[in-house]
Amino acid sequence: MTGLNRRNLLASGAAALGGAGVGWGTRGLRGDHDGNGTNSASGTEPASTEPAADVVTGGDTIDFHGVHQAGIDTAAQAHLSLVGLDLLEGGGGEELGRMMRLLSDDASRFTSGRGALADTEPELAESPARLTVTFGFGPRVLRMLRPAYDPGLQELPAFPLDRLDPAWGQTDVVLQVCTDDPMTLSHVRRMLLKDAAPFATVRWVQDGFRRARGTEAAGTTMRNLMGQVDGTVNLPADDHADLLWSTGRASGFDGGTFMVVRRIEMDLVDWDRTDRVAREFSVGRKLADGAPLTGSAEHDEPDFEAVDAVGFPVIDPASHVARMRSADPAERFLRRGYNYTTPDGGAGLVFLAFAADVDRQFVPVQQRMDELDLLNEWVTTIGSAVYAVPPACVEGDFVGREMLGLPSPTTSGGDA
Amino acid sequence: MTGLNRRNLLASGAAALGGAGVGWGTRGLRGDHDGNGTNSASGTEPASTEPAADVVTGGDTIDFHGVHQAGIDTAAQAHLSLVGLDLLEGGGGEELGRMMRLLSDDASRFTSGRGALADTEPELAESPARLTVTFGFGPRVLRMLRPAYDPGLQELPAFPLDRLDPAWGQTDVVLQVCTDDPMTLSHVRRMLLKDAAPFATVRWVQDGFRRARGTEAAGTTMRNLMGQVDGTVNLPADDHADLLWSTGRASGFDGGTFMVVRRIEMDLVDWDRTDRVAREFSVGRKLADGAPLTGSAEHDEPDFEAVDAVGFPVIDPASHVARMRSADPAERFLRRGYNYTTPDGGAGLVFLAFAADVDRQFVPVQQRMDELDLLNEWVTTIGSAVYAVPPACVEGDFVGREMLGLPSPTTSGGDA
């Protein structure tokens, strides 16, 4: 696969380029770009304001077609809706193919700002706002359709600390819908699920969010809901296509990858009782800017040899940053997680990782965390799944066709 | 009350200024402002992009203090979290005062980009993104604390078509948290509810969304999830302070207003079965741009006298636009609703209206809708509440103190 576009991978790994603290203190950077001084920092006048005359970005598009599926090395949009689907009882390749043909056509239209063929509210589709729709397939689908085909998709091994709830478990198909606009998200999800309804049922929907587009400077590493800068070490910006995209492993899978979904619940009530020193000790990074405890900026290399005045390591070997670090450069993957909250006050992270080889790149890291990580006191994985994410399709084709061994689309077959 | 700022009211009623269709076709308007051509409309190259180098707006603030509470005539932010609280059994004025002192201090800090006094993740508070926190009080609170005080707060009359679920009913206190950033929303809500916990329980949380900031041109009227342009007729831009803000009605309430909350469920499954002609007939407006069926642009005045070739009215008298229209200019209010979805695929509108006199301005309109409106086929109100929204407080004071007849804050009293 030579389709790697260095700038694109760089974009998704932009964390590696954003300076620590760039996202903060932006008030100082912000010019009076609306030209009418609507933003009063203080004062006794009613301060209600109209928003600044922003650049309109709803029309920004990300191409659905290409070499790889979009939504992987795409700089993360503000909103996620991840939907786990199970094929209806008795459904096989033909049904799956019809569903994927419909959904691929929908996605192709939506991502370019057009309504679906059978769209009942096409006006809601006119602002894609960097919409991407990414499809993945669970192990059962490949076992059922192509038992001899092995692109490298295996269920994750058991991790003893997991407390898995089947309600968030492995499904046959996953749809990852991401966009900067929440209206677009809700409309696109609704239309996709209408078209999927004759073929599959929804097991779960995992919605998530990051900072809105424009809140922070592009490239600022996100924080999770524990307040930590989360994702500083991500797949580096260049020369690591081999860690992200599959090559030569199976026919029809070149340019594909694998998606790991882990739903990680946070115990914020207990976290709140933990003082900042203990928090930073557990993470191994400073909360203020994400700098390692041995450094002064987010992207400084942690110094695991450094000791304090009485000889203890500054970064505890059981801290998250120490446990996640590997001497093996292959133990890396692209992280693209989203925060979530629940109506009852719960919170957590929809951890999403993409890797060309899950067993080689992701599993050892997760095993180390499972064995020992001070952060485990406050985080529990309650859902887990893994999907084969085939390459993109060309226009008129559908995602996964080659991988699933299905025939080319014909002119027959209906829309929902 | 002379504090009305014409530009501000204009901002919230900005719908009246936005041209029809301004929000669409923005791709044409959008310059290549990122300077690197990342947005490919089509093509075979992988189109993953980094976001444009937007103006950073997370630092934009709206003053919590002033004459009126913010979040009313503030141009609607992208995200809403509306929280209904009930005071704990036995809680009276003293407890409510302590809670409001804490929450007002929190809100004052959060809206200026600072963490709360007891904030456990203050870094998450550093991008207010036009955050507003607005407080209202239900009828029971005034009856309990000041039975003789009458700013004009009454429960709404019964509307026969309502199918009210007490789970979404009247509460003692409401917090309206709005911001353009979903991370800020979740953090601020969590911290406010932590500080409220010793005094009150959460009855409901109603989250909602509009277009993200920047998706459309400022002033574009929002669409609801039925795809309709929703909110074209809003409180006009000038000379209607009397319809929004209370004056001379009760001591400590000048500059206050009332908030009506109606949770309106939409039957999108049935709506989807309805063709566009029938939809437009029911609404009385065109779906494409919100123009009345007798006009060509969103803000054209509907012509209720116009008839078609066979003599039938072009805008049916039972259509939504006809039923909502009143010859009485006092039957208007400021609408500030948000769309909602539920995990099971449900959808609707958190309808929020602000008016100086609910009985005079809102109730007749709602009664007309209840009596007859073709849209009722698809919408059902399942929650309803009304709140007195006092004026803003000055720095160091707390919202509602005068209205609730509570003593000035002293230096005693603790933080949560």
From TrEMBL, chains A, B:
Which cellular component appears as one GO term in the record?
cytosol
Give every Dyp-type peroxidase N-terminal domain span: 69-210
Task: Supply the SUPFAM superfamilies for this chain.
Answer: Dimeric alpha+beta barrel (SSF54909)
Give the cofactors, semicolon-separated. Answer: heme b
Q: Which residues form the Dyp-type peroxidase C-terminal domain?
A: 222-393
**Pfam families to which the protein is assigned, alphabetical:** Dyp_perox_C, Dyp_perox_N
**Which Gene Ontology molecular-function terms are recorded?**
heme binding; metal ion binding; peroxidase activity
**Positions of region (Disordered):** 28-57
Q: Which residues fall in a compositionally biased region of kind Polar residues?
A: 36-47
Keyword annotations for this protein, in alphabetical order, are:
Heme, Iron, Metal-binding, Oxidoreductase, Peroxidase, Signal
Q: Does the keyword Thylakoid apply?
A: no
Query: Family assignment?
Result: Belongs to the DyP-type peroxidase family.
Entries under NCBIfam families matching the protein: Dyp_perox_fam
Q: What is this protein called?
A: Dyp-type peroxidase
